[in-house]
Every structure is written in C-alpha cells, then in structure tokens.
Write a structure and sequence with these properties.
The chain has about 100 residues and is mainly alpha-helical. It has one helix and no strands. It has one domain (about 1-100).
C-alpha cells in the first residue's frame, strides 16, 4: 500500500514537473515573441529615422541646386540683356544714320 502511494506521489510530482516545464516554455516563448516585436519596432523606428534624414538631406541639396541654378540663369539673363542692349544701340545708330541720309 505504501509502495502504491509512493508511486502515485512520484507520478504526481512528475506531472507537476512536466506542467511546470510547459508553463516555463510558454513563458519563455512569450518573452521571445515580445522581445522580437520590440526589436522589430526599434528597427522600424531606426529605418524611418534614416529615411527621414535622407529625405531632409535630399531636400536641402535640391534646394541648394535650385538656388544655384536660379543664380546662374539670372546671370545668363543679365548677360543676354547687356548683349542685346549693345546690339540695340548699334542698330538704333544705323537707323538714325539711314534716316539722316534720306
């Protein structure tokens, strides 16, 4: 009788150990999932930050290029105006001379 009781007690202890192992396994799996989710979230935040920084840098570079192109085009416009003005003065003189010769 004592032997049967000890066997049942040993079986119960074995079940308890198995149940405790299962519970710990479930807990460890949950912790692993949580850690993975946290790392994924951190990685996504870092990725978003890197993208935002790259976009901001590209915008700054684009704005600098726009300003440079505006300055160049304004300079070209001024050069064209000066050349046109010089040519116009010459043309006006010729027209005035031709009218004077009539």
């Amino acid at each position: 009788m004592e032997l049967i009781r000890q066997i049942k007690q040993a079986e119960q202890e074995a079940r308890d150990i198995v149940d405790q192992g299962r519970a710990e396994t479930v807990l460890l799996a949950e912790e692993g999932r949580n850690k993975h989710a946290e790392q994924t979230s951190i990685a996504q935040a870092q990725r978003r930050k890197a993208i935002d920084e790259a976009v901001a840098q590209a915008q700054e570079q684009g704005q600098a290029e726009v300003e440079q192109l505006r300055a160049q085009s304004q300079e070209q416009i001024e050069q064209l105006r000066q050349r046109a003005s010089a040519r116009m003065d010459g043309c006006v003189e010729r027209v005035v001379q031709e009218i004077g010769n009539l």
